[in-house]
Specification:
Blueprint (H helix, E strand, L loop, with lengths): L21 E3 L27 E5 L4 E4 L9 E4 L10 E9 L2 E7 L8 E5 L4 E5 L1 E6 L4 E6 L2 E7 L2 E2 L8 E15 L2 E10 L11 E7 L8 E3 L3 E4 H7 L7 E5 L1
Parallel strand pairs: 9-18, 12-16, 15-17
Antiparallel strand pairs: 1-13, 2-5, 2-8, 3-4, 5-6, 6-7, 9-10, 10-11, 13-14, 13-18, 14-15
């Protein structure tokens, strides 16, 4: 059985050192956002009027099948390294062997991995949020019920260590007691760098804070998306399982 929960990623940012103190979202108060110039208006790259269904489990792990009732099962730990229950976005469903099955995204290599779960053992809920990152425009848009609620200029990976495009989801949410290498908070993603494979966490990507306002609009990281701290403080409350689209 493969164990898919691994040490967090954010070793993939420039000059990475793990923050000294981290706590799950909601356990601490993030410093209030400071004022700054309003970002330029940018087009909304896509709209998501329908909420996304995500699944969690009360068990210690998900049992993942290659196809309904076929192949495996492999074991996916149901909590990340901080004990937070992970939520898997649902892509569709089917009936097989007299029972319902759900097709879900997985936080595993290769990027875009999917699997099948028995629906009867799972808890479901709706996520009304979505994040879209446009690499060519160095922008991030947060949508709620299809409407943009944040439009941000962000830093992305350098040409040597590019941010991987694709469809991912929020795998972890962290805030930091004191702003450090990753600013005031981080959103760990289900996806990985296509270049870095031997770092702690296997090169898992993240959206995280930065105290350097000049990071915005530039290629500056080893693959992470950098958000200025004042804006990251507002972004860090998106739900677990929130879909994240990273466009080339």
């Amino acid at each position: 059985m493969r164990q898919l929960a691994v040490a967090f990623l954010i070793a993939i940012c420039v000059g990475c050192r793990a923050p000294q103190v981290t706590t799950p979202v909601g356990a601490v108060t993030v410093p209030a956002a400071t004022s700054e110039a309003r970002p330029r208006l940018i087009p909304v790259p896509e709209r998501a009027p329908e909420p996304v269904r995500v699944v969690t489990t009360a068990a210690d792990s998900f049992l993942v099948y290659e196809r309904p009732a076929q192949g495996g099962p492999d074991e996916l730990l149901a909590r990340n390294d901080w004990g937070q229950p992970i939520a898997l976005p649902v892509l569709g469903g089917a009936h097989a062997g007299g029972e319902p099955w759900l097709h879900v995204r997985l936080p595993d290599r290769p990027n875009g991995s999917t699997g099948w779960l028995r629906a009867g053992d799972l808890r479901t809920r709706l996520v009304h949020e979505r994040i879209v990152v446009d690499l060519s425009d160095h922008t991030l848009i947060r949508l709620s019920d299809g409407e943009p609620v944040q439009r941000l200029r962000v830093g992305i990976g350098t040409p040597a260590f590019p941010t991987s495009p694709g469809r991912f989801f929020i795998w972890a949410r962290l805030r930091y007691d004191s702003p450090g290498t990753y600013g005031v908070g981080a959103l760990g993603l289900s996806g990985f760098s296509e270049v870095i494979t031997d770092w702690v966490g296997g090169g898992r990507m993240a959206i995280h804070g930065t105290s350097d306002a000049t990071d915005r609009g530039r290629g500056v990281s080893h693959g992470c998306v950098r958000v200025f701290n004042a804006q990251m403080a507002r972004l860090a409350d998106v739900p677990m399982g929130t879909p994240v689209r990273i466009r080339p």
